[in-house]
Amino acid sequence: KIPNYPMQADRLTNSECKLIPKLLSIMKSKQTNLCLSADYTSFEAIEKICHQVGNYICALKVHHDIIEDFSAEKGLMLKELSEKYQFLVVEDRKFADIGNTVKEQYAGKFKVSDWADIVTVHGIAGSGTVEGLKTALPEEMLQERAVLLIAEMSSDGSLAVGDYSKGVLEIAEKFPDFVMGFVCQSRIGSDKFLRWMPGIHLAAEGDSLGQKYKLPEAAVAQGADILIVGRCIINADDPVAVVKECQKRGYAAWDAFGY
Ligand code: BMP
């Protein structure tokens, strides 16, 4: 049964977070809801995969602190690549500290706020974390930046469940102009937000360290708008072929659900 979710058109026109309509139009025009989790340890590998698959993804997620040769300048190079191929850049920093500390971290040594369209944030410290990130941005950049709140996690035994997850949704409601949505495992929260779902693989059920996987179709059925896929792609013999398969299957499922 197909649930009666509001059509994309509602979110295109009514979103307070201006990156939501921007992302939805990228998704529609490129026919993709795939976010590549480019968890490479060299910047060269990230540049290479951008050129190879930039046309098939709507977002590229990095962990800048695993890239051995990363610098603020490399961040700006990534931003240029994202403009060339039209995708958003996500830094999966999972900011979790008090407002004043994350404010310094966001604009700090690696200038994450200069090159990442989106950053991920934990709710553990309360709404001051999101507020701190917001205050790091100059007024004119506020509409060009957004956060994803980690509401649920894909890993075995995650503590982000129940009342904790509900608390994260409440934080989101306080900052509808800055919160794009959630990293989650279900269609949690209000439909004005987008749900980004990791823990997706075409062939594995998990890894040896607690990660749990599902297929793209199952992720969409669980409520995903955007599919975050990492090692299934980056460890494949032919990453481009796997990206194309994830793009095709993920977008077909999402479109059919009418999210
Ligand atoms: P992989 O598909 O290779 O398992 O990678 C998943 C990516 O998504 C990793 O970068 C991880 O940090 C991130 N992630 C996750 O796996 N589960 C979550 O709940 C939240 C995440 O950010």
Can you put this structure into words, describing what you see?
- This protein has 259 residues and is an alpha/beta fold.
- The chain is 42% helix and 15% strand.
- It has an eight-stranded parallel beta barrel with strand order 1-2-3-4-5-6-7-8, surrounded by six helices.
- Helix 1 (8-14) runs antiparallel to helix 2 and helix 3 (43-53) packs parallel to helix 4.
- The structure holds 6-hydroxyuridine-5'-phosphate (BMP).
- Residues 37, 39, 63, 92, 120, 153-155, 183, 198-199, 211, 228-232 line the site of 6-hydroxyuridine-5'-phosphate.
What distinguishing features does this structure have?
259 residues, alpha/beta, 42% helix
Structural class by SSE content = alpha/beta
C-alpha termini separation? 13 Å
Number of DSSP-assigned strands: 8
**Secondary-structure element series:** HHEHEHEHHEHEHEEHEHH
Name the strands of the widest sheet in spatial order.
Answer: 1-2-3-4-5-6-7-8
Concise summary:
By secondary structure, the protein is an alpha/beta fold. It has eleven helices and eight strands.
Please describe the topology of this protein.
Layout: H1 8-14, H2 19-30, E1 34-37, H3 43-53, E2 59-62, H4 72-85, E3 88-95, H5 99-107, H6 112-115, E4 118-122, H7 128-135, E5 146-150, H8 162-174, E6 179-183, E7 194-197, H9 216-222, E8 226-229, H10 231-234, H11 239-257
Parallel strand pairs: 1-2, 1-8, 2-3, 3-4, 4-5, 5-6, 6-7, 7-8
Helix pairs in contact: 1-2, 3-4, 5-7, 9-11
This protein binds 6-hydroxyuridine-5'-phosphate.
